[in-house]
Amino acid sequence: MKLSSRITQITGGGSDGWSVHYRALALKAAGTPVTLLSMGEHDTRTDPSILAAMDASARGGNTGYSPVPGFPSLRKAVAARIAGQTGVPTGPENVIILPGGQAALFAAHHAACDPGDRAVYIDPYYATYPGTIRAVGAVPHAVMAHADNGFQPLRADLDIATRGAKSLLINSPNNPTGAIYSDDTLQDIADVCRTNDLWLISDEVYDTQVWEGRHVSPRALPGMAERTLVVNSLSKSHAMTGSRVGWVCGPAEVISAMHNLATHNTYGVAGFVQDAALFALGQGSAAEEAVAAPFRRRRQIVMDSLAGQNLVRPAPISGAMYAMLDVRATGMSGEDFANALLDAERIGVMPGESFGAGGAGHIRVAMTVADDMLADALRRIAGFAGTLAR
Ligand SMILES: Cc1ncc(COP(=O)(O)O)c(C=O)c1O
After folding, report:
1. Longest dimension (CA), the chain
2. Which bin fits 320, alpha (ψ -120 to 50), beta or left (φ > 0)?
3. Cis amide bond preceding 99, omega within 30
4. Residue 266 — pLDDT band, cuts 50, 70, 90?
5. Checking CA distances to 260, which of 222, 297, 371, 387 falls within 20 to 30 Å?
6. 202 touches ligand 1 (CB under 6 Å)
7. CA-CA distance, 271 to 65, in Å (whole number)?
8. How far apart are CA 151 and CA 164, in angstroms?
9. How would you class 33 by CB atoms within 10 Å of its CB: exposed for 0-12, middle for 13-18, buried for 19 or more?
10. If pLDDT is split at 50, 70 and 90, which confidence band does 18 have?
């Protein structure tokens, strides 16, 4: 039987850029010690107090269907958090609870784009972006954010790419680059969206991981609340990747349309997970800072470990849990470097090219292993680059 083209075209064909990672996993499974720096997931688990709240909720009987758009209490808590952070009036009617940031990205594009519409995203990009756009029948179109411009997209490039488009997807703090968009970049993005009547889909899943500068949600910029769909989740902020709980925040009429989508798709998020999320949010910013603290510390470890040499240069790590390392001085592509590094040093990293052409000549290191292991791996990466230069 023939599958629909919508489902077969999601991946877009070609290499998915994960081959080095899979090779590293296979080596590890075969018993070879490998340092894996390719996983975008905390090396700590969900806090036991959150698990206790989840357990109490489930044992208290909260195992049935829950309201499709989320518990009013959780929608209210998310809205209050957003209003507190941004100053934009936000109520529960502006929030729908969904099973994670990825489901929120899908719902946001579903709401914004008709089949055949052009949906713009910034390259380097989080792995699922083009596939998510294709999954709703829209046509992905990349705008390059150049390493030499701190991975900030340029106004001129945005202008060209967004003419005639329906939506623009941004991610700040950014995976994979660690960039945080400057006030000027965000002003340009907002301006381009207003001028071209675009939906802005703002993926803010790393908003609690800010090391330098400040995170500004573009929904707070003039004239943007009516055209911005903010995507977020508790995956990164509370080390709750496996709980699958996130949201979209946007205009009430969009949220109510997404309610229809969720009714025919996810049919809500488990009630005990929502109760755990409500508890987690209730712990306030101190709990979020505790989850983020290892990455703040390791960002410094990356810079210290790579100081005093010029072959492996970290891009500024302003936010998120990744370091993008420029290996262009070795003369190798990111992919060749990553493969050779795995062979020589048994260290698994992501080639920059797996995040799009904008990541060429880079490797991405996830700062998701213990401090001493990270420091050791980085010194070996720099040492390995030195052997190439000889
Ligand atoms: C930029 C970005 N957006 C969205 C997601 C998906 O997050 P979630 O686990 O909430 O689905 C990730 C996960 O790594 C991510 O890096």
Report:
1. 66
2. left
3. no
4. very high
5. 222
6. no
7. 7
8. 24
9. exposed
10. confident
User: Phi and psi dihedrals of 122, rounded to 5?
Assistant: -100, 135
Tokens representing 351 are 């080639």
Q: Which of 18, 102, 237 to mutate to test the pocket of ligand 1 (most atoms within 8 A of CB)?
A: 102
For 177-197, b/e burial (b = at least 16 CB within 10 A) is bbbbbbeebbbbbbbbbbebe
- pLDDT digit string, tens, across residues 178-188: 999 999 999 99
Q: What is the pLDDT of residue 247?
A: 98
Hey, what's the torsion of the CAs at 74, 77, 80, 81, to 10 degrees?
Answer: -110
Within 10 angstroms of residue 203's Cβ, the number of other Cβ atoms is 27
Question: Ligand 1 mean position to 284 CA, how many Å?
Answer: 21
Q: Strands of 322-326's sheet, edge to edge? A: 313-314, 322-326, 362-366, 350-351
Whether the full predicted model's pTM is greater than 0.85, yes or no, is yes
